[in-house]
Design brief:
Blueprint: E1 13-16, H1 31-35, E2 70-74, E3 86-88, H2 91-99, E4 109-115, E5 123-127, E6 130-133, E7 142-144, E8 149-151, E9 156-157, E10 165-167, H3 170-178, H4 180-183, H5 192-204, E11 220-222, H6 227-234
Parallel strand pairs: 6-9
Antiparallel strand pairs: 1-5, 2-3, 2-4, 4-7, 5-6, 8-10, 8-11
Length: about 250
């Protein structure tokens, strides 16, 4: 059973780090180019994911578990059982596999929002020797997925293990990756040199060489280069065991 994030008091070993306290501005530009959709009207705003909402990919209750959350507004598709957006308690094993699944290739997204760890006072909690990053569900904690820089291959886990940790400020992602004394990111590889090698290996796995970022943050892949690259980097280990059960009709 995956560890749950305490709702109130935290009695575990907690390391706190401030990251631009207050809500960050949520960018909405470039969605049509990055998400494959096209719209003349402004995209919908993110909503709060509290209230015991269950993940549209895995069924877990959002907010009770650690890690980044996400939500997707589709132009001509609604998730099963409720109106838009589709919502998720993990990115690597929820939002991105759901959105980039072959049967959803015709589903144009009006907006994709993910937790912005540059906009919140996040916590990293140690449970049985494993570090987990806090979960945030308020509407103002979400930012445009296409404008985030994601820390990958970190030792800090989300609700379902390793995840993509989004930061709207690339400098926050860089510090989180290299300054391990703060929150324990990649503690075994704390130097800029080794982190850069890790980042280069991750970039090298992308299947679209012409879309690889030219000047990326150390140890990170800027998703704004192409959201498809995030899907490519998932690999078979992130495939969902019940993918065949998710077959919406998104044909235009």
């Amino acid at each position: 059973m995956r560890p749950q994030q305490p709702r109130e008091e935290r009695t575990l070993d907690v390391t706190r780090r401030r990251c631009c306290v207050g809500a960050a501005a949520i960018g909405t530009c470039g969605l049509a180019g990055c998400l494959g959709g096209s719209t003349a009207s402004p995209p919908p705003d993110p909503i709060s994911l509290d209230g015991d909402k269950t993940d549209d990919w895995g069924g877990m209750i959002i907010g009770e578990h650690f890690g980044p959350n996400g939500q997707i507004f589709y132009a001509k598709h609604s998730p099963e059982g409720h109106d838009n957006p589709a919502w998720f308690h993990t990115l690597a094993k929820g939002l991105f596999p759901y959105h980039f699944a072959p049967d959803r290739q015709d589903c144009d997204a009006e907006a994709i929002y993910v937790t912005d760890y540059s906009a919140v006072d996040f916590e990293v909690t140690t449970v049985n020797g494993q570090a987990f990053i806090s979960s945030h569900t308020a509407a103002e904690t979400f930012g445009d997925a296409a404008g985030m820089t994601y820390v990958m291959e970190s030792d800090v886990h989300g609700g379902m293990g390793p995840d993509f940790l989004p930061f709207s400020a690339a400098s926050d992602a860089d510090r989180s990756w290299t300054h391990t004394a703060d929150v324990g990111f990649r503690s075994a590889r704390s130097t800029r040199t080794s982190s850069r090698r890790t980042g280069e290996r991750a970039v090298g796995r992308l299947s679209h060489p012409h879309k690889r970022p030219v000047d990326g943050v150390t140890g990170c892949i800027p998703v704004k280069a192409t959201l498809t690259d995030v899907s490519d980097s998932l690999g078979a280990e992130y495939s969902h065991p019940t993918e065949s059960a998710h077959k919406p009709n998104c044909a235009i």
